[in-house]
C-alpha cells in the first residue's frame, strides 16, 4: 500500500514529482509483459507468411489467450466490490463524496473531449469512401461446432475465470488475432484511413489532452506518471479489457507512484466502469465514417447528437473486449444510419486494444488528479484516526495554464467543496 509510509513516494507539495525511486526505467515486472506483446506480434506476422492456416490451428494458437481472459474475468466483480468497500471504509462520508464528485467531473469531461476530438478528426480527414461498401463484404462465420471446439470448451470450463497474469497468454491473444486476419493488405488498403483517423485521435488524446489536463491541475511531469503505469498500459493492450487490467493498474499506481490506496480503491473501479475515453472517440469516428461511406451528409445537429450519444454509449459500454461494437448500434440508430454497415468495422476490431489502453491511461490520470486534490482531506482523516490535530491545508489547486480554462479550475475547486 501507499498510505503514508516514510518510503512511499507522494504527490506532495511544490517541487515534488511523481517518482518510483532512483530509476525511471519500466519496473522489472513489466518486462515479461513487453516480451509477450512483442513475441505475439512477431509470431503472428511470421504465421501470415505461411499458407492459409486451418481454422482449428488458429483456435489452438489463441487457446492459451482464451484461458488467460477467463482467469482475468473471474475477479472483476469481486475485485470491484471489495475495492469500493475498502476505499470507502477508510474515508468519512464527506471525503468520499468529494472524491467521487471530482472523479465524475474528470471522467465525464475527458470523455466528452475524446468524442469531440474524434468528430473533428473524422470530419477533417474524411476517411469514408462509398466504394468501400462494394469492395468489402462481411465474412461468413462457420457456426458448426467441431469436436475440437467441444474438447477445448471442456478444458476452458475446467478453469474458473481466475486471476493469473501471463505474458504467454498475452502473446497467444495477439498472435491469434494477427494470424486470423484473412487479408491484412486488403484491410489496410480499404480501411487504412479509418484506422489512421482512430489511431491519430487516440494518440492525441493519450499523449496530449490527458497529460495537459494532468499538468494543468498538478503542475507535475505527466510523462513520469506514464512511466509508472507502463505495465498497466501493456496489459490493457494485450487483454483489451480495462476491468481485467484493474489488478495491474492498482499495483502500478500504489506501488510505483505512491497513490493512496483509499483513492485508487474508490476511483479506479468507477473509472473502469464509466470512463471510456477511447471508446467514445472510436464510436464518434465510426458513426461519421459510416455516414461518409453511405454519402449521407450530417448537419450540425446530427453531429452534436453523434458526440453526445457516443459519450453516453461509452459510459454504458461494458469494460470487456469489443463492447464498443455493441453500443455502436445505439449511435447509428440515433442519427438514422444503416446498422448493417457495422460488419465492415469487424475487420479492424483489433483497434479495441488501442482504445482500451487509452481508457486505462485515462483512469490512471484521473486517480492521480483526485489524489492530488484530496491530499488535505486524506491527511485530516488520518489525523482524526490518530487523535492528533490536522495539518494545515495544502496549497490551493493551481490554475490552468491558459486563460479560458479558468472556468475549469473553478469547477475543480467547487467539486472539492
UniProtKB/TrEMBL annotation:
The family this protein is said to belong to: Belongs to the dicarboxylate/amino acid:cation symporter (DAACS) (TC 2.A.23) family.
GO CC annotation, single: plasma membrane
Record gene name: LOC101931098
Molecular-function annotations in GO: glutamate:sodium symporter activity; L-glutamate transmembrane transporter activity; neutral L-amino acid transmembrane transporter activity
Disordered: annotated segments: 1-32
InterPro entries according to UniProt: DAACS, Na-dicarboxylate_symporter, Na-dicarboxylate_symporter_CS, Na:dicarbo_symporter_sf
Protein name per UniProt: Amino acid transporter
Organism field: Chrysemys picta bellii (Western painted turtle)
Membrane topology note: Multi-pass membrane protein
Transmembrane feature ranges: 71-91, 103-123, 193-216, 223-246
Lineage: Eukaryota, Metazoa, Chordata, Craniata, Vertebrata
Pfam families with a match to the protein in the record: SDF
